[in-house]
Amino acid sequence: MTFLLVVVFTLLQGPTLPWVSRRLGVLEPAQTRELVIEHAPFEDLAATMLTFDIPPRSRLNGVEVGELRLPDDAVLALILRNGSLFVPRADTSLRAGDHLLLACPVKHRGAVECRLRAISRAGRLATWRGERGQVSA
To answer: Which residue has better confidence, 21 or 31?
Structure first.
């Protein structure tokens, strides 16, 4: 008998409790779900954003993002191609005329720039071909 009474009262009270509390004025109105957006200055994160275009005769043309072999904490964030923005995957092939946005820690900026210059000059196997991507004097 006790079990039956507990079940009945639970089934009656559960659905009616919010309605009764609103009627009695003890329920607070619903909180708004406002989005909080914060600005993250890159100086505070010790990070930098690099933007670059792939020139028409660059050997980056046809290289997949996964073949760039950038440091683990460097991220190719966006590609602008023919007026459309998209997030690249590891198997996305780069094309001449692409505009790229890359984020990386400040400490790896030099290595990332050298790697990208090397691939642009000598292709996927730039390191094997002796290309290191140093700035020409």
So the answer is: 21
Residue 19 lies in a domain: no
Domain count, the chain: 1
pTM over 0.70: no
pLDDT digits (tens, 9 = 90+) for 31-88: 555 656 565 667 778 899 999 999 988 999 999 999 998 988 999 999 999 999 999 9
Q: Which of 62, 91, 93, 65 is nearest to 77 (CA)?
A: 65
Beta strands in the chain (DSSP E): 47-53, 75-81, 84-86, 99-105
Could you tell me if residue 47 is inside a domain?
yes
> Quick check: is 136 in a domain?
no
Tell me which residue range forms the domain holding 61. 42-122
Residue 70 sits in a domain whose CATH number is 3.30.70.1450
Q: What are phi and psi of 5, to 5 degrees?
A: -65, -40
Tell me the CB-side half-sphere exposure of residue 31, using CA atoms within 13 A. 3
